[in-house]
Amino acid sequence: MSHWPDVAALEILVAVADHGSLAGAARAVGTAQPSASRSMARLERTLGVPLLHRSTRGSTLTPAGLLVTEWARAVVTASHQLVDGAALLAQDTSRSRSLRVSASQTVAEHLLPRWLAALRTAHPDATVQVTVHNSHEVARDVLHGSADLGFIESPRPPAGLHHAVVARDELVLVAPPQHPWGTREDPVTTAELAGTPLITREAGSGTRLVLDHALGRPVTSLLEMPSNAAVRVSVQAGSAPAVLSRLAVDDAVAAGTLVQVPTVLNLRRRLRAVWNGPRTTQGLTAELIALAQREG
Q1: Domain containing 78: what range?
Q2: The HTH lysR-type domain covers which part of the protein (predicted)?
C-alpha cells in the first residue's frame, strides 16, 4: 500500500457499522451520502478489499468490512484523542485561570452560586465571569465563542456543541390560592393545560421549550415574562397559573402564597453543561462540570 488510508473514510466505515447503513453513517458524521459513498470507494481501492455490499436496498458491510471496521475503530479513537489533545495544548494559557460562563436563569439563580462557591474554595485565584440568558441565548454564546461554558435547560442538546448532564430538575404547575385550581385534587389534563392561558417565560427559555414539548404544541401565553421571578410574582398577584422549576417556587409553595397543582404531565428535565471545541475539557471548565455533577 503506497499511502495511509484516509481517517475520515475510516470514521464513515465505523459509522456504517454503528448505524446500520451508509445513509445513517453519512448523517452521523455530518456529510452528504454521495460524498460518503465516494469516500468508501476510495478506501476500498486504497486497501484493496471490498468493504461494502451495495444493493438497491442500501449498503451493508461485507465480512471483510466487518473485520476491517474493528481495526479502524481503534484508529479513529486514537485520531480523536490526537486532535482533542492538540487543541487543548493550543489553548491560550493566559486564560487558564479564568472562565466565562453563560447560564440559563434557573441554573444561575438556584444552582450556579453553590457550584461557583465550591470552585472558588478549590481555586481562590480563579476569575469567573457569569452572564445570564435563556437557554437558546446560552447555546449561542458558547457556539460563537463569547462563553467557555454554558448551562442550559432545553429538552434537547443544541446541535454543534458537546454536552453533559450535570443535574436534574422538575417543572411544576402552580396557581394562586384563590384560583379555581387552588383546591384541585384531580390532575389537570394535557388538554386543559393546553387550552388555559398561562403566565410563561419568553420563547427560547428552557422552561418554555420543555412545556411546549410536553404539550405537543405551543403553550397559550397570557403574559410572557423575562425571568422566573417575574412569572412567580405575576402568579402570586392572581393573574393566571404558570409552570416553573420546582427550584423557583418551593419557597412560595411552603409559604402558602402559591399552590402546587397536580398534573398528568411528566415535566422532569435534564440540566446540561455545553461547550465548544475539544470533546475533552480541562482546567476550570472540567472542574466546574465535575462540581456541578457532584452537587447538582
Answers
A1: 7-90
A2: 5-62
> How far apart are the C-alpha atoms of 111 and 133, rounded to whole Å?
15
Are both 180 and 291 inside the same structural domain? yes
Strand partners, 243: 173
3 state SS of 59: strand
Classify residue 206: in a domain, yes or no.
yes
What nine digits make up the cell of 265?
Answer: 404531565
The reply to whether 219 and 197 lie within a common domain is yes
On whether the CB atoms of residues 209 and 155 are closer than 8 A, the answer is yes
Instruction: State the Cα angle at 134 between 133 and 139, rounded to 5°.
Output: 85
Global model pTM greater than 0.85: no
Q: Which of 75, 90, 105 is the last residue of a domain?
A: 90
- Residues 6 or more apart whose CB falls under 8 angstroms from that of 148 comprise 99, 100, 101, 142, 275, 285
pLDDT digits (tens, 9 = 90+) for 140-172: 999 999 999 999 999 888 889 999 999 999 999
3-state secondary structure of 91: coil
Same-domain status, 285 and 138: yes
Does residue 2 lie within any of the structural domains?
A: no
Q: For residue range 38-80, what is the model confidence (pLDDT) as tens digits?
A: 999 999 999 999 999 888 877 888 988 889 998 998 898 888 7
Kindly tell me the burial class for residue 277, based on how many C-beta atoms sit within 10 Å of its own C-beta (0-12, 13-18, 19 or more): middle
